Amino acid sequence: MRAVSIEEAVAMIPAGASIMVGGFMGVGTPWRLLDELVRQRKAGLSIISNDAALPGKGVGKLFDAELVSRLTATHIGLNPKAQQQMLAKQIAVDLIPQGTFVERIRAGGCGLGGVLTPTGVGTLVAEGKRQIEVDGKPFLLETALRAQFALVHAFLADYLGNLSYALTARNFNPVMAMAADTVIVTAEHIVPVGVIAPDHVVTPAPLVDYLITNPSG
Amino acid sequence: MDAQEIIARRVARELRNGDLVNLGIGIPTLVANYVPAGLSVFFQSENGLIGTGPIPEQGLEHPLLTDAGGRPISALPGASTFDSAMSFGLIRGGHVDVTVLGGLQVDAHGLLANWMIPGKMVPGMGGAMDLVSGAKRVIVAMQHAAKGKSKIVAKCTLPLTSVRPVQLVVTDMAVIGFPDGKATLLEIAPGLSVGEVMAVTDAELAVSDDIPQMKI
C-alpha cells in the first residue's frame, strides 16, 4: 500500500478506463475521487456502479460532466441525466439485477468464472445467456466482472491499508476491493495501525494499493 | 381511509412474529406503519441493514445510515449491517420470509411485471428480480386499477420480473391468491360487492359463494 495525494491517484487513471465505484445512492461513495475525476476531465469512462445516484451527488457528478461512455448498474431511475444520456445513446447502459451485479463482482474478485443464479430465468435478463440445470432447477450462467480500478470508500483505514466500514456505507465497497487491478481508497478517518481490531477489519491491507491522505473536508 | 392506507393495513396483517421482511418502495414502505401491536418483525433494507427503524427526527439523521432510496433511516437496538453480497444472499437464499413489492401488472397465474415499460420507463430492476426469485413469500401491494385500466390482467403484456408466481396480491379493492396456480378472489374491500370488483378486473377470478370482507 502507498499513501498518495488525490491528485496523484487520479492522474494514474487513464481516460477510457474501466472503474468500479462503491456506494449506494451516494452513500459510501468515494466522492472526493469522483470530484477529482471531474476536475481532471477523465472522459470515456466505463463505470461499474450500483446506481447513478442523483444529479450533483456521488456518481451522478460523472454524468453531469458527461464523462461516462458505458455504465453497468442495477438502477438509474433516480438520475434523469443518466436516463437522458442513455436514451440519446450517448452512453451504453447494461442494467442487471442487483444480486447478480454483486455476485458477478464477487466472482471476479474470487477467481471464479461466474455464478449460477435463478434470478432472471425466463425474463429479458436471460437473453443471450446460457441456462444450466442443477438438480432439475434452471439457473442462468452469469459471468465474472472485473475492472482496471476500484474506487472504495471506507470508514476507518490504517496506514497498512486495513479497512472497516460504517452502517449502510459498506454496501459494494468490500466486494469491489477484491475485483480490480488497482484499488484506491478514501476513508473518513485514517488511524494508527492496531486501532482497527483484527476481528473488525473487513478489507485486509494487502488488497489496497493506494490510500488517499489529503485531509477531507 | 385512502387506497394506499387500506392496502398497507391489510398487508401488515400478513406478517408473523419474527419474520424477516423486505419492503419495496412506494405503497410497500407504508406497511411498516401498520405492524399490529405486539408483533415483532425484522425489516431488511437491501443496501445492507436488518433492523430498520423509523425515519429519524430532523437533525438526527446519520449520513451513513439510509434506506435503498438514499433516504435517512434509523437502526433499532439489535440491528445488524453487512455488505451487498450478504444482503442478496439473504434475499436469494430464501432467508427473507416476506417481501412486499409494488406492481404494474399481475396476471391470472400470479406472474408479476413491475420493472419496466418498454420505451417509456427503463429505470433498471434494482433488487426486484432477486426478491421475487428468492423470498419465501412475495406479496404485491398495488392499486387495483390505474387510469381506469385493471392491473390484474389475463396475461402480462409488460416484461416479467420473474417466472416464479407471487403468493398474494393486495389492492384497494380485493385480496387475490393463487391456489393451484389460478387467480382466486379471497376478500373484498368494505362497501364493495363481488360484482363491482369483477367489473374492474381483467383476469378471470375464481370466486366462492361467500367472500369475506378485507380486515383492515
From TrEMBL, chain A:
The chain crosses the membrane at residues 12-34. This is 3-oxoacid CoA-transferase subunit A. Pfam families: CoA_trans. Keywords: Membrane, Transferase, Transmembrane, Transmembrane helix. The keyword Metal-binding does not apply. It comes from Bradyrhizobium diversitatis. The keyword Transmembrane applies. It comes from the Bacteria.
UniProtKB/TrEMBL annotation, chain B:
It comes from the Bacteria. Coiled coil: none annotated. The keyword Transferase applies. The keyword Glycoprotein does not apply. Pfam families: CoA_trans. SMART domains: CoA_trans. InterPro entries: 3-oxoacid_CoA-transf_B, CoA_trans_fam_I, CoA_transf_AS, NagB/RpiA_transferase-like. Keywords: Transferase. One of its GO terms (molecular function) is transferase activity. PANTHER family: KETOACID-COENZYME A TRANSFERASE (PTHR13707), SUCCINYL-COA:3-KETOACID COENZYME A TRANSFERASE SUBUNIT B-RELATED (PTHR13707:SF57). NCBIfam families: pcaJ_scoB_fam. Belongs to the 3-oxoacid CoA-transferase subunit B family. This is CoA transferase subunit B.
